[in-house]
């Protein structure tokens, strides 16, 4: 038995089970998809001393560099009050939290899937069929990621965690920017570009070494092509990470969603778990989500300036 996730196919309104392929139309997040599903084959995803130190860039400085004007101070104040009054707070982030770091998202009109067919570049079957083609796609991503820095949103979330106002960050992103910003409790439910592994012998290489081995990084031990340690379409979800994320969400009094369209399952079902457990829901995103009508607060504004304003509004730390 393998544990698999549900994904919303990028070009349709269907949710498809990976890897078995069964599908259903989902105009809103169904409660039946709250948890990982077990699919049977054939059945129709600090310092060395431990001291925490501030990131050299502050969230305020990063926000000041944002090219987008932000005038929704009232919304930021309301979100700050909601976070302070609703503890513990767990944050769920998607690609939209990293766009201000120069990393493109996936599903917007100018996103990655507008340029690349995900079935050709982002599935485990595509990788096994033509790893060089998939690495041509990932080499371009790594070229962007190696120079990317945390933006005001990442820095503000790390600061809120340091003050005890954020319990953990559950992220769909693979870019390592939450970690680089100083967040400690980060659950990467879609894996990370931090390492790449050999499917043949299990050898693993760090990000820096993989960049050196481009354009098609091969295993130093057996010569097979390495695979980035991200969850591709058709691969099982990391069960331990998702179970931890689910437990945190069920225990939260507030789930704050930042930069996610909430379209990829099973992660998109986490807000349903939060609401079913009696938690409040706040969403900061530039496009609609299936949960907008059920959120206690919905902010359509850039993540960086919004969260920087929230961090300022919660000063001094509690």
Task: Give the topology, please.
Layout: E1 2-4, E2 6-8, E3 14-17, E4 23-25, E5 37-39, H1 59-64, H2 73-85, E6 89-93, H3 118-121, H4 124-129, H5 131-145, H6 152-162, E7 168-171, H7 177-181, E8 186-188, E9 191-198, E10 204-206, H8 207-213, E11 226-230, H9 239-251, E12 254-258, H10 270-276, E13 280-284, E14 297-299, H11 303-313
Parallel strand pairs: 6-7, 6-12, 7-8, 12-13, 13-14
Antiparallel strand pairs: 1-5, 2-3, 3-4, 9-10, 9-11
CATH topology of the largest domain: Rossmann fold
Write the CATH architecture name of the largest domain: 3-Layer(aba) Sandwich
- Unreliable parts: 1-57, 62-71
State the domain count: 3
The CATH homologous superfamily of the largest domain corresponds to TPP-binding domain
- Order of H and E elements: EEEEEHHEHHHHEHEEEHEHEHEEH
How would you describe this structure in keywords?
alpha/beta, 318 residues, disordered N terminus, SIR2/SIRT2 'Small Domain', Rossmann fold, elongated, three-stranded antiparallel beta sheet, six-stranded parallel beta sheet
